[in-house]
Design goal:
448 residues; alpha+beta; three-stranded antiparallel beta sheet; 19 strands; globular
């Protein structure tokens, strides 16, 4: 290792990486060194999205069992949505060195068109073909913007601007198009056999619009460019005009094939519900809250243990049961057979909507349920993602401690205002940032 030369009894094409691993007395492994050739780790660390127990079938020590490209390991993978949430958490907590380290690394990963891949290997960086999703980039850019606004550090402004321009390029501008004003989904897709398809994603997801509204609001403030404000206003309007299902009191999943995607996904209703309070009467947001509880509530769910690969969980347990929310409903065939489990990320999204509407007791109940899950047997401080594993496609849910759920829990307790900050006809941010002027119509800075 000292000479940079190492040997393996296996042979695979492509980039090679060597990890020197120390076995601790308790049996755990600690990475104490890695090869410094063709890897990005020395450029800055990113958080691993999941803490995967080493006895789990999904835990991979060398990447040799993954489909597609040798080297893919879930246990050393960071999704950029998670990185965006981590930036929000670390910024609020004052861990600015970590924020700078992450953004320094992300500068090297940014694609030439300003986009970011959906996920990165902690050591190798980009591992697969260009799989890009608009909503994930929205969260990442909002995390970068929040750091810049809180600290005044504009070192990463060029990276934010490139990503912001990419988001603007996703907006459908043809007025006759049913997707007019919305952002398309990104680039690249994988088939059921993980074969890559080099295609543009034409559908528009409600989740992506909500995520990207935060980014565009942040860009308008960091970059001082009205284009981002105008784009955000158009998205907000079209989200309500085209994606609100008034009959069922919820938001569609998006626009696909020129018509509403009527599948039932929890986040579409809770996330958009947090934004709709800025556009029309809060009764509509309250309807979203009621619909979410009626359709997605999952009560008295145990943490399921299993030794079967697709349902594996031996690390986490509890004698108690828990209540929260499941991610999908089978009210249509789109999600037929959807797992009935507590999904902590979505549960906290419901709590955030309740809190925004002033239903503090309702929000607190489900936050407390997640805190109880955080304290289940086997947890090391993170919050498990679900109460049961469904590793099979298309679900891929696991009982693992996750950055996403842990970040949502931190943010809703300490600074819920950074989650989908409220906006009116003009973008403004009502939170801890003191150098942003109130742009509400009729407010002290209103010049209209």
């Amino acid at each position: 290792m000292a000479s940079g030369i190492w040997y393996s009894n296996q042979s695979y094409p492509g980039i090679k990486i060597c990890k020197a691993v120390k076995i601790l007395e308790n049996g755990e492994e600690e990475i104490v060194g890695i090869s410094d050739t063709n890897n990005s780790y020395h450029l800055g660390r990113l958080p691993a999205s999941y803490l995967i127990p080493q006895d789990d079938p999904q835990y991979n020590r060398d990447g040799s069992s993954a489909l597609g490209v040798h080297g893919y390991m879930l246990n050393s993978r960071c999704w950029v949505y998670d990185a965006g949430l981590a930036l929000l958490v670390f910024t609020h907590a004052g861990d600015y060195d970590l924020c700078r380290e992450m953004q320094g690394r992300l500068q090297t990963e940014q694609n030439s068109d300003g986009s970011f891949n959906f996920s990165y290997d902690l050591y190798i960086g980009q591992l697969f073909q260009g799989y890009v999703r608009t909503g994930a980039i929205g969260w990442l850019v909002w995390g970068m913007c929040y750091y810049a606004l809180e600290t005044g550090d504009l070192t990463y402004k060029p990276m934010i601007e490139k990503a912001g321009q990419w988001l603007l390029s996703r907006q459908v501008t043809e007025k006759g198009d049913p997707r007019y004003g919305l952002l398309t989904g990104g680039h690249g897709a994988y088939g059921d056999d993980y074969s890559y398809q080099d295609i543009e994603i034409e559908w528009c997801s409600v989740e992506h619009q909500c995520s990207s509204l935060q980014a565009l609001a942040g860009c308008s403030l960091v970059l001082g460019n009205t284009r981002y404000k105008e784009a955000a206003e158009l998205i907000r309007d079209q989200l309500c005009l085209k994606c609100y299902d008034r009959e069922n009191g919820r938001f569609y999943q998006g626009i696909n094939g020129g018509r509403p995607d009527v599948a039932w996904a929890l986040d579409c209703t809770t996330w958009a519900g947090m934004l709709i309070t800025s556009v029309i009467h809060s009764d509509c947001a309250r309807t979203c809250l009621a619909t979410a509880k009626e359709v997605y509530l999952a009560e008295d769910k145990a943490i399921v243990q299993s030794s079967v690969k697709e349902y594996y969980n031996q690390a986490y347990s509890s004698e108690s049961t828990f209540s929260g929310f499941k991610p999908y409903s089978d009210k249509t065939e789109d999600y037929a057979g959807a797992p009935d489990l507590v999904w902590t990320e979505g549960t906290l999204g419901y709590a955030a909507l309740a809190l925004m509407l002033g239903d503090v007791e309702e929000a607190a109940f489900y936050v407390d349920e997640c805190i109880r899950l955080q304290n289940c047997d086997g947890c090391t401080g993170g919050l498990i993602y679900t109460t049961a594993t469904h590793g099979e496609l298309p679900w891929e849910f696991h009982v693992w401690e996750s950055v996403v759920s842990s970040a949502w829990l931190y943010l809703i307790i300490h600074c819920p205002e950074v989650l989908f900050p409220r906006t009116l006809r003009q973008v403004y941010y009502m939170a801890k940032i003191t150098n942003i002027q109130d742009e509400r119509p009729g407010g002290p800075e209103d010049s209209s």
